[in-house]
Write a structure and sequence with these properties.
GO terms for molecular function: adenylate cyclase activity; ATP binding; diadenylate cyclase activity. This is Diadenylate cyclase. Catalyzes the condensation of 2 ATP molecules into cyclic di-AMP (c-di-AMP), a second messenger used to regulate differing processes in different bacteria. 53% of the residues lie in helices and 17% in strands. It has 269 residues and is of the alpha+beta class. The strands form 2 sheets. A 7-stranded mixed sheet has the order 4-6-5-3-7-8-9, with helices on both faces. It starts with a strand and ends in a 6-residue tail after the last helix. The protein binds adenosine-5'-triphosphate (ATP). The site of adenosine-5'-triphosphate has 17 residues, from helix 9.
Length: 269
């Protein structure tokens, strides 16, 4: 199936499709590793591979054999070096294809109720953030969107109570035995407190941000939940969504972002 001829090369439409897909794959891998130390390893590996193709085309047999060995051993080394990125990639795929995340399937096949109106849910949350921020009390709140958070809920103390500002403030009070860790909120209810969240390994996070913020970011990398962190040190509000942490937000910025994010349907919903 001939598309067109480029010098001595015959390029078919399938070749074009193939090249397009490879370019897309490389671009996605680059996006995944961008900014991390792994990105330099990735570029290095790509350059070695290009050198291999070149020496092979030139017919330099000894060099080709050496680079061939290097590349095959390197593939194993890459799996070890890129374990974090591979994990993130697989989590991302799993996250986007998890059938139980579909609102339609949850509602009609699994007979689960749809989430409570998020506007009603947001009010006590934002009031709590305002109070914690003014009092310089630390806080970490996980707001479920679609992903199943049962594993994280079970890591803490189950509460399962109606959402209210006074209950949230009582949990995050420094005298409360439940103030450490995160509170998980879903479907208008406080599901559990003192929850342990996964911690992000992002090297680009400012050193001033400690484990509360790393946990917020880590949770947003692993799930589609929105995570609010209130700094005990500065009273500042931060929001982590889909692996992005926005810091020093005003209350209205926090409200707008949460409102927009929780309202927007996921692709395929
Ligand atoms: N993996 C985690 N899961 C849940 N909560 C965590 C986790 N790691 C830390 N925290 C919470 O963060 C608190 C420690 O915050 P730390 O001072 O290290 O963070 P920070 O980002 O500097 O925030 P702050 O500005 O409030 O000091 C812990 O007391 C705990 O409540």
């Amino acid at each position: 199936m001939l598309g067109f001829r480029l010098g001595f090369l015959e390029i078919g439409w399938l070749d074009l499709l193939d090249m397009g897909l490879v370019a897309l794959l490389i671009y996605q891998i680059y996006n995944l590793v961008r900014g991390s130390v792994a990105s330099r390893v990735f570029i290095g590996y790509l350059l070695v591979y290009l050198a291999y193709l070149l020496v092979k085309a030139l017919g330099l047999n000894l060099m080709t054999t050496i680079l061939e060995y290097f590349i095959s051993v390197g593939a194993l080394a890459l799996i070890i070096i890129f374990q974090q990125e591979i994990r993130r990639f697989l989590l991302y795929i799993g996250k986007s294809t998890n059938l139980t995340n579909s609102r339609w399937i949850r509602r009609w096949l699994l007979r689960q109720p749809l989430q409570a109106d998020h506007q009603t849910t947001l009010k006590p949350i934002l009031d709590t953030c305002k109070a914690l921020s003014t009092e310089f009390s630390g806080g970490l709140l996980v707001l479920q969107k679609n992903d199943d958070l049962e594993k994280f809920i079970q890591s803490g103390e189950i509460i399962n109570a109606d959402l209210s500002k006074s209950l949230l403030l009582a949990i995050f009070s420094q005298y409360s035995p439940l103030h450490d860790g995160a509170v998980v909120i879903s479907d208008g209810r406080i599901r559990s407190a003192r929850c342990i969240l996964p911690v992000s390994n992002d090297d680009e996070l400012p050193p001033a941000l400690g484990f509360r913020h790393r946990a917020a970011l880590g949770m947003s990398e692993a799930t589609d939940a929105a995570v609010i962190a209130i700094s005990e040190e500065s009273g500042r509000l931060a929001l982590a969504i889909n692996g992005e942490l926005s810091t020093s937000l005003s209350l209205s910025e926090l409200e707008n972002r949460l409102d927009q994010y929780l309202r927007e349907p996921r692709i395929g919903h």
